User: What shape does this take?
Amino acid sequence: MRDVTFLLGPGVVNALLLAPILYRSRLVPRIMPVIGLVGAPLLLASTIATMFGAYEQMSTPAAVLGLPIATWELSLGIWMIVKGFNQMRR
Assistant: This one.
């Protein structure tokens, strides 16, 4: 159970919950959450393949499928440091 929660927890849940919220609220440029929305199913597929023994967690296929999420998380962190949230207009 610990291994499964470790695989599913950080990247998949983060992307599946945070990306739609940021996309709908438009607090960051739209392309950033789209990368997370595209990368989440890829990371989920990679996680499931790892759980069923298709390949190791630290392998080339896992790295390739995890690249969009890594890009999204890096760009989101840099954006928050440099620009912060867009101010909402009323």
Observations:
- Residues 2-82 form one domain.
